[in-house]
């Protein structure tokens, strides 16, 4: 496998080193010094990642969901489900709630 991912930039594709979780960075702080991790392991560039899921484990990170940090400075879009919770700087990322659409009266 390759070296850990450098400072994340929008458009970067990252993957878990231990499961099939894959994400695309949608938004990242310019001074992002903390690692993005999945299941406690630093995420790597997607081309360096495994493509198999440990057998019998349900995914923790779900495809199509957006994950954000508490300060709403980092946003990731999950492109492949897998085991392991996403964290940034040791803090868990939460599923971003959908935006409410305006009422159409």
Shape, please? globular
- SS elements, strand count: 10
- Output the radius of gyration: 14 Å
- Which ranges are low-confidence, i.e. pLDDT below 50, for 5 or more consecutive residues? 1-5
Tally of separate domains? 1
Q: For the terminal residues, how far apart are their CA atoms?
A: 55 Å
If helices are DSSP runs of H or I spanning 4 or more residues, what is the number of helices? 0
Task: Summarize model confidence as the mean pLDDT.
Answer: 85
Percent helix range = under 10%
The biggest sheet amounts to:
6 strands, antiparallel
- Class from helix and strand fractions: mainly beta
The neighbouring-strand order within the major sheet is 5-1-2-7-6-10
Strand percentage lies at 25-35%
Spell out the helices and strands N to C: EEEEEEEEEE
Report on this structure:
The chain is mostly beta strands and 105 residues long. It has one domain (1-44, 55-82, 91-96). Helix content is 0%, strand content 30%.
């Amino acid at each position: 496998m390759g070296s850990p991912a450098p400072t994340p930039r929008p458009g970067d594709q990252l993957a878990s080193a231990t499961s099939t979780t894959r994400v695309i960075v949608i938004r990242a702080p310019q001074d992002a010094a903390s690692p993005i991790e999945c299941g406690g392991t630093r995420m790597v560039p997607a081309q360096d990642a495994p493509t198999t899921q440990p057998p019998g484990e349900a995914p923790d990170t779900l495809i199509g969901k957006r994950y954000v940090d508490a300060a709403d400075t980092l946003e990731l879009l999950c492109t492949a489900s897998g085991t392991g919770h996403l964290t940034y700087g040791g803090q868990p990322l939460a599923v971003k709630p959908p935006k409410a659409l305006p009422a159409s009266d």
